[in-house]
């Protein structure tokens, strides 16, 4: 193996996937995968710490300034719990870390292909095994909740496509089945959207007929998952509806300016909302006093609007898009990467998830074959 220090993070990632995947099959939860993957991001940050591209420097500067000033006010002055603070500001901390990765180009297309196929095969086999066992949907996972980990697989699929510019119909079928087996509504919407967009981008006579076949299958899968997940439930009993209505109640007195900048750093939800949602014990404040923050509302979009406003959400979206573009990825694929995060944020944590940031980081550290070819001419 050609060992270089710049390749170390990718080799650790590959090893993590293999070891954690094997332990997952054995039902051994010896480590918390999310913590290990977050540690990998920090290790990668320090390995690549030497230089940062000037045209992305504004992203970590703005993010770090915002986090630092907010930390002084919310934690030092207002005495809020520091872990509650970092949970709310995690996405901005991630931006500081991954901005360092742009232009490092240490990950080859061949290595991406290997990681992608291993992850796809691992997810398919584990999900199939669990479904055949009759496992509850919430427990169908390899590393973490399927809503989170499927973002990483979606990014790998898109990165492999960017490198090869080829749609493998067998792999696409396997992807669809894998996402369907997961039972994840957001995951299935994401992969159907990605596949549909790529077929439309590469539309020819053959792809047109395949798209005619794929469209009803993909939409049918989404309909089936939504139907089975909400079977017997009224609208008022669906969790995402409850979260959204709770959010509307919290912001009912907001002005237009409030929606732009969000609530005061950091603001707890009302006791009434916390009491209604207190069955999500793990999402209550680290102060253990019954207080809760926006994280209990699950959907990242309403969380980020409450905490950071539309300006904060726009900054996150613009930053991720800009970083991916500066890594040598075209506008179309960069837009699709952003859409993975936005679609996921309708349901869960998106920008706040280590699996999303791992997926984006793979783009930032990968060699783009198209750029290599141009440079060789």
Automatic annotation (TrEMBL):
<feature type="transmembrane region" description="Helical">
    <location>
        <begin position="336"/>
        <end position="358"/>
    </location>
</feature>
<feature type="transmembrane region" description="Helical">
    <location>
        <begin position="82"/>
        <end position="103"/>
    </location>
</feature>
<feature type="transmembrane region" description="Helical">
    <location>
        <begin position="115"/>
        <end position="136"/>
    </location>
</feature>
<feature type="transmembrane region" description="Helical">
    <location>
        <begin position="300"/>
        <end position="324"/>
    </location>
</feature>
<keyword id="KW-1133">Transmembrane helix</keyword>
<keyword id="KW-0472">Membrane</keyword>
<keyword id="KW-0812">Transmembrane</keyword>
<feature type="transmembrane region" description="Helical">
    <location>
        <begin position="12"/>
        <end position="28"/>
    </location>
</feature>
<feature type="transmembrane region" description="Helical">
    <location>
        <begin position="172"/>
        <end position="200"/>
    </location>
</feature>
<feature type="transmembrane region" description="Helical">
    <location>
        <begin position="207"/>
        <end position="226"/>
    </location>
</feature>
<protein>
    <recommendedName>
        <fullName>O-antigen ligase domain-containing protein</fullName>
    </recommendedName>
</protein>
<feature type="transmembrane region" description="Helical">
    <location>
        <begin position="57"/>
        <end position="76"/>
    </location>
</feature>
<feature type="transmembrane region" description="Helical">
    <location>
        <begin position="34"/>
        <end position="50"/>
    </location>
</feature>
């Amino acid at each position: 193996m050609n060992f270089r220090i710049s390749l170390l993070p990718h080799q650790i990632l590959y090893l993590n996937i293999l070891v954690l995947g094997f332990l997952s099959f054995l039902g051994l939860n010896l480590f918390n995968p999310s913590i290990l993957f977050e540690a990998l991001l920090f290790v990668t940050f320090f390995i690549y710490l030497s230089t940062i591209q000037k045209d992305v420097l504004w992203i970590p500067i703005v993010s770090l300034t915002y986090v630092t000033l907010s930390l002084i006010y919310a934690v030092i002055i207002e005495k809020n719990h520091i872990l509650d603070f970092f949970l709310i500001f995690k996405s901005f901390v991630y931006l500081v870390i991954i901005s360092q990765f742009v232009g490092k180009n240490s990950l080859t297309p061949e290595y991406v292909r290997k990681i992608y196929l291993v992850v796809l095969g691992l997810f398919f086999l584990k999900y199939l095994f669990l479904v055949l066992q009759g496992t509850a949907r919430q427990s169908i996972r390899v590393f973490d909740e399927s809503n989170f980990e499927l973002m990483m697989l979606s990014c790998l699929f898109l990165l492999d496509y960017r490198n090869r510019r080829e749609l493998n119909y067998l792999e696409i079928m396997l992807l669809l089945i894998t996402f369907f087996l997961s039972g994840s509504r957001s995951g299935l919407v994401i992969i159907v959207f990605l596949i549909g967009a790529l077929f439309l981008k590469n539309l020819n006579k053959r792809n047109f007929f395949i798209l005619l076949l794929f469209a009803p299958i993909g939409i049918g899968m989404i309909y089936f998952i939504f139907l089975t997940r909400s079977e017997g439930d009224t609208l008022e009993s669906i969790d995402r509806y409850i979260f959204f209505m709770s959010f509307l109640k919290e912001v009912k007195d907001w002005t237009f300016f409030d929606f732009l900048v969000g609530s005061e750093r950091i603001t707890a939800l009302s006791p009434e909302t916390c009491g209604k949602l207190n069955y999500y014990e793990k999402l209550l404040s680290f102060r253990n006093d019954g207080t809760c923050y926006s994280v209990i509302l699950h959907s990242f979009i309403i969380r980020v609007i409450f905490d950071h406003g539309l300006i904060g959400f726009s900054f996150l979206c613009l930053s991720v898009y800009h970083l991916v573009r500066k890594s040598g990825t075209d506008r179309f694929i960069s837009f699709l990467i952003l859409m993975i995060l936005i679609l996921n944020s309708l349901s869960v944590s998106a920008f706040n998830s280590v699996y999303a940031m791992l997926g984006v980081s793979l783009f930032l550290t990968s060699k783009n074959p198209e750029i290599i070819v141009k440079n060789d001419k």
